[in-house]
Design goal:
This protein is α/β, with parallel strands linked by helices. It folds into 2 domains: 12-131 and 298-313, Rossmann fold (3-Layer(aba) Sandwich), CATH 3.40.50.720; 134-295 and 329-338, 2-Layer Sandwich (Dihydrodipicolinate Reductase, domain 2), CATH 3.30.360. Helices cover 35% and strands 28% of the residues. It contains 9 helices and 14 strands. It has helices at 23-31, 46-55, 65-70, 83-95, 110-123, 137-147, 173-189, 296-309, 318-346; strands spanning 12-17, 36-42, 60-62, 76-79, 99-103, 127-130, 154-164, 195-201, 211-217, 223-229, 231-243, 247-251, 259-268, 279-287. The strands form 2 sheets. The chain has an 8-stranded mixed β-sheet. Helix 2 (46-55) links the parallel strand 2 and strand 3 (60-62). Helix 4 (83-95) packs parallel to helix 5 and helix 6 packs across helix 7. The longest helix has 29 residues, at 318-346. It is globular. Nicotinamide-adenine-dinucleotide binds at residues 17-23, 42-45, 48, 64-65, 80-83, 85, 103-104, 130, 132.
Length: 347
């Protein structure tokens, strides 16, 4: 079936698939988006459907995502079911000429992601992934500081995304959490890593590491380190950007001082001055800009509507999503190889 053009006078009729942990946030923001008319929610679990029926009596309910996709009164689908269902559901939607916003990660393999991106292009449909953090005001501010040269060349990015849980047997901490950091860095640097190293530990099950340290190296010289854990006693969400002009710390859990910019740096002294000290330190002012507030998912919903309308170019389309999945796939292969080597060494 071909894509149906939606007139700007008509609302974009939406089906949401999956009403578990994250689905309710997407539903709330889809309902708040003036271009959308949420027609239907599909959810396998009967108790969750009952909860939905009580809260939103005007929204039709389906028990299966494929039935929701096939409805005549649906133009676009938002997929918030587990990652291993995204490919099957997104493929069915695109084949029926319907636009897709799939939760992260868009698919669990590069091959599936590329197939979806090709299908979307062939059908003229919008395919996007919810890389939520690209609509976080702090990330927007860091991106514009970087693009304006205020940070200079980035030597390193050091990211900490740790907390206790949510342990998930279907994913591991790499696929669950690194996807956010990698999407943020892809957005800011617009580069793909040329090399990476990775190490992990699995406290509960061998197949599902709950602690991962990933280091990626970018063509422009930036090195990024990601500390990811579901097994930390405290929750930390912090990224340090080491620029040669200024350094920046983003603490996402600090509502008063989310971003701090340090006019600090270090450079080698002239050869003739090195008898005094080898390096010269610059320890300047610290500024704390006011970061606008706003829910990132509202931005994601508005962007999905604007891309369908042709008012905006997508910043998180299928091709971009594949770039992130390619990094995850390579990192996973390295983790698997490490595990084999450690098992062999123990024998
Ligand atoms: N962007 C973010 O910050 C963010 C945060 C959390 C989760 N997520 C993503 O959202 C997705 C869902 O995660 P979750 O934690 O909400 O999972 P979940 O298991 O809590 O919920 C998924 C729901 O989908 C339903 N479901 C599964 N297959 C279905 C089908 N074929 N038809 C209808 N319903 C179906 C399940 O019954 C379940 O209620 C994952 O891809 C996850 O990575 C994104």
């Amino acid at each position: 079936m071909d894509k149906k053009d939606i007139s700007p006078m008509d609302k974009i009729r939406i089906a949401l698939i999956g009403y578990g942990y994250w689905g309710p946030n997407l539903l709330r923001n889809a309902l708040g988006q003036p271009r959308f008319d949420v027609r239907c929610v599909a959810e396998r679990d009967a108790a969750r459907r009952d909860k939905l029926a009580a809260a939103y009596p005007d929204i039709a309910l389906e028990s299966d995502g494929l039935t929701a996709i096939a409805r005549d009164d649906v133009d676009a689908v938002i997929i918030a079911s587990p990652a291993d269902t995204h490919f099957m559901l997104a493929k069915a939607a695109l084949e029926q000429g319907k636009h897709v916003l799939a939760e992260k990660p868009m698919t669990t393999t590069v091959a599936d992601g590329e197939a979806l991106a090709e299908l979307a292009e062939a059908r003229g449909c919008v395919l996007m992934t919810d890389h939520t953090f690209l609509f976080t005001p702090s990330v927007r501010m860091i991106k514009s500081l970087y693009d304006d040269g205020k940070l200079g060349r980035l030597s390193y990015v050091d990211s900490t995304r740790i907390n206790l849980g949510l342990f998930n047997m279907e994913a591991n901490v790499l696929w669950d959490l690194a996807v956010h950091d990698l999407a943020i860095l892809d957005f800011i640097l617009n580069e793909e890593p040329v090399h990476m190293t990775v190490s992990s530990h699995a406290h509960l099950t061998e197949e599902s590491p709950d602690l991962v340290h990933l280091t990626t190296y970018y063509p422009s010289g930036t090195m990024a380190h990601f500390n990811l854990s579901w097994l930390s006693p405290v929750k930390l969400r912090r990224m340090v950007f080491g620029g040669d002009e200024q350094m920046l710390i983003w603490d996402d859990l600090n509502n008063d001082e989310k971003i701090k910019i340090y006019n600090s740096g270090i450079k080698l002294r002239e050869e003739s001055q090195r008898h005094v000290a080898t390096a010269e330190y610059r320890i300047g002012d610290i500024s704390v800009p006011r970061v606008p507030t706003g829910e990132a998912l509202a931005g994601v919903a508005a962007h999905f509507a604007a891309v369908i309308d042709g008012r905006e170019e997508s910043i998180m389309d299928g091709r971009r999503a594949v770039r992130i999945i390619r990094i995850l796939e390579r990192a996973q292969a390295l983790l698997d190889e490490n595990r084999r080597q450690i098992a062999a060494a123990k024998q």
